[in-house]
Design a protein that fits this description.
The protein is built from 5 helices and 8 strands, in the order E-H-E-H-E-E-H-E-H-H-E-E-E. It has 222 residues and is an alpha/beta fold. The protein has one domain: 3-Layer(aba) Sandwich (Rossmann fold). An 8-stranded mixed beta sheet has the order 1-3-2-4-5-7-6-8, sandwiched between helices. Strand 4, helix 3 and strand 5 form a beta-alpha-beta unit.
Length: 222
Amino acid sequence: MKPVPFQDPLAFGETRAGAVQVRPADARAIHISGFARETRDFYATPSWVTEALLKHVTFRGKLWEPCCGDGAMSSVLAAHGLDVVSSDIADRGFGRPGVDFLACTEVPEGCRGIVTNPPYGDTGTPAGQEKSSVAMLKFLRHAMRLTESVQGQLALLVRLQWIAGRHASEMLSSGPFAATIVLNRRIQWFQMGADTKTAQHHHAWVVLDWGARPGVPVLLFA
């Protein structure tokens, strides 16, 4: 299916508070595991990761999950009483498929924030790792522009060490950087029985808020 820009907000899959469309998977891998990577980096975010974000951040309105996959994150947000517009570039049976986030020029109608676990790209080789870093910066820049346009909120799940990179730290600092929420547990993205490898990376939520009073970003743990 050819990716399409976000043009018809009303046509997007929308998850109302309390409505769960599918039962999400329990895993999503983003480290070099020894297994072939899923197409378009599809690995579902464990529910406790989204729960950790919601312990510290109060969202002001409808949210957009532009990399919704099978609805793992959207379902948790909806279970907490939030309205969520869900889309993805691929068809995973949840939300509206065929939507290229980077081609979208505005957020869906009524949305005041973006919450997602962005794809990291191919990290199986050194060259792929480099491309992954560049892709993440491009995703962050675009997400910041979109949320700034509605004076909204942005929460992205990223590798903790990625935040320390010069380009990432400069870009985050250029906006209303509100908080870093460090996850105390390493995320086990998938289970392969006896072949499951130990998780290699620590992760954190980075939160920007264009509607908040200017202040010093806070460091939180969950």
